[in-house]
Amino acid sequence: MKFTSLSQQPKQVDILIIPVLRDDNIKENISKIASVFGLDTDIIQQDIHGNNGEVVKLYPNKIAKRVYILGCGDRIGFKNVKQAFKALSFKEQKNWTRDICLDCTYLDATPLLIEAAINALMLGTYQVGLYKTDDSETTSSLLHADFKVVSKLSDAAVLKAAEKAKATAKTQLQIMDLVNAPGNKATPQALAAWAVQSGKIYNYKVKVLHKKEIEETGLNTVLAVNRGSEYPPEFIIMEYKPETDKKLKKVGLVGKGVTFDTGGLSIKGSNNMHYMKSDMGGAAAVMGTIELAAKLKLNVHLIGIVPATDNCVDATAVKPGDVIHSYSGKTIEIIDTDAEGRLILADGIAYMNKHYSPDVLIDIATLTGSAVRALGYQAGALFSKNDDLINKLEAAGHRIGERLWSLPIWDEYFDGMRSDVADIKNFSSRPIAGAIEAAKFLEFFTNNHPQWAHLDIAGVAFGNSGLAKQKSSTAYGINLMIDYLMGF
What we know:
This protein is of the alpha/beta class. The chain has helices at 26-37, 41-47, 78-92, 111-123, 155-180, 188-202, 211-217, 220-226, 281-296, 341-356, 369-375, 387-400, 434-443, 478-485, and strands at residues 2-6, 13-20, 55-58, 64-71, 99-103, 146-150, 205-209, 234-240, 250-255, 257-261, 301-311, 323-325, 331-333, 360-365, 380-384, 404-406, 424-425, 452-456, 462-463, 472-473. The strands form 4 sheets. Strands 7, 8, 9, 10, 11, 14, 15, 16 and 18 form a 9-stranded mixed beta sheet that branches. It is elongated. The relative contact order is 0.11.
């Protein structure tokens, strides 16, 4: 995709997209659009209201072969614009040529909104049928378009936003493939291979500890969860550091990489178990963030750790009541084998602290159904005792449309995690505060890190993406973390 910034609409283009808002200026803007295309203002105003996702198609021929008047709702923001443009792209882009123009004349477009629009147009080309034998689906011409942007912004601002949108979308499309792939395809080995390949392309370090090295290192919680699996575990370590003499902030990201979760011996119900291929959404967010940070050459020292394994049922699988030793040296009583994500995160967090001592430590995981019950599918749950970190992460989420909501992590909630036989148990069995107690479990392994946050993204990483009939990956977390990291 090549970009050109223009101050006025070109005289001739194949595909013209004109976003509008449902605001006080809607009638005036529709009148101007009607005048440009020689249309009856009263008639066109009856059809165009500016509702989010509303599309009115025109075929004026002289100016453009197809014109799309696209409603973006009554509030201008990254999420609204992205939602409208992604839906348009998904439904229409198969019929588009490579000559496309986005005219933001009737929208008070900022660089962030132009980024949202172009990013969404590219995401709308996603094809979820990764393993269909019918090869009728081809790569969208939009991905190779000569894309013109008309706005009041400087050429430099438009081109910078457009290139960032493209770089982000290319990473997100790959990450969506990883999350949507079934457990027999997106194995721990596949995740490790993806990271190694990405590191080679974008020039960041990747080290993978295989099962023997995991055993020698003492990453025992990873081994415990892996005991019922046919695929050996992988412990993936990624490090991006720009070439500079300046002292950089060091941020550590730990992602839950459970490539398929049966629940182990505490087996899940069958109704939605096939969706448990998505239980590595946190790992995908971390891997995508590292790659994109390297692409954008962000001014931050970034380390990503992904403990990768599936959680399956076998005679050798860990059992409820077992006590295991963690990398930190602390012992864990297993109450529920379906609370496995926090186990591998515990070793990932402890390893990160011991070997990298990050200034900021953030773990990301599709961890609990409790977070979904609390917040639905609109926001991820955020846990931290550092108000400044909470504020910055929440602000990034609101700005970029990947929202977070802070829940309490008071010390009283730890009572449910106390064990009679070990230092801590992995599940309280109480039908209350499940997401909070999971966060308290993870906090136990942070060594009281002063800038630690836990993001439970179970309700937002995988759901109604608008790109498939069933639930699929949303690529949640990459834009959020990049926006946060750009603050450094």
